[in-house]
Write the structure tokens for this entry.
Amino acid sequence: MRSSGSTRSRRASPSVRLLIVLVGEDHPKACTGRRLVRRGLAMRVGSIAALTPAPVVLDPYSATPVSRTDATQARRGGIVAIDCSWNRLADRGHLPVASGAPAPRARHRRLPLLIATNPQHFGRPAQLNTVEALAASLYLVGRPDEASRVVEGFHGGPTFLEVNAERLAAYAAAENADEVRAAEQRLFGGPTAGGA
């Protein structure tokens, strides 16, 4: 029998949509983006320009790192990752980064420096695979529990959050992109650059 009391059931805040443009350069079994889609953790999209509400787009060519100031846009429009070689993004039609004309209304953001734990690039800075990039983004917009759920079942996934715990905490505590850059400088020294 249900209580007729005045207590209301607590509703969890909505999850951030994870959106992936699959370019198809990886072997299907090794592609973390495809695996996220198959598991129902992300949705495949063909183009960024038509997405509404406008998302946060992970773009290694952006000067601005993901920060907590992107939380509202991420919650409304989601976070988009392009599942291909980051080195080839400017040659593709998926992100118009070469022309300097980002997708309308989308916020193009790079990831701050983090250490990869995926089998292909273990221990290398800024060599993240798609699942690591999306988990980091979730963490930085204030969704650490969702970040943990995303990496579950991926080789090196939970290790990614452990290895980068100090960095993720510092970036997540930053009030804005300038403070994220300052944290990068403190943690890594030298010029900053990020990627996924």
User: Anything to note?
Assistant: The CA atoms of residues 115 and 125 lie 4 Å apart. DSSP finds seven helices and five strands in the chain. The chain has one domain: 18-188.
